[in-house]
Amino acid sequence: MISVKEYGELLTEIDEIVENNLMDSYIKVGHIQRLIRKFRKNHVALVIPSIKAIVANAYNLTPDSLSIVTRTDTIKEARQMAMWFYYHYTKLSFKMIGAEFDNGEHRFSHCAALFSVGKIDDLCDTDKVLQKTREIITKDIQIYYTKVERKKLERVFTIEN
Hints:
Elements lengths: L3 H20 L5 H30 L14 H17 L4 H6 L10 H17 L1 H33 L1
């Protein structure tokens, strides 16, 4: 997981490359692409545990309980909802989304993630309670990341000043 300090260093590094290369009228695209890939990879590492925790909290479960292989409706629905949010809030493939729910004994496949995303989309068209739950979780995620981004920016600015 990337720390706030590392985010600040990464952003400073990108700024330096852009500033220096714009003065030379030559942009080294490879350097910027490498930094952006690093940033995206590390950003996903920050997002993943938080989505799982927020969804589990909405269903009054623990994040680890989402990885339990069971057909209990509450756990199954919460896991499907978490997979739906992973799909919509990260750039992870279905294979990687399924792997996030690995419990050591069982690893959910890309098919489980694909099915979960489709199932939540279909159910939200008709089930108003599930639709409301998805809206509440969406707001919780937005509130959480607004706080995280604010803290990150505050720390970056205090490091620079």
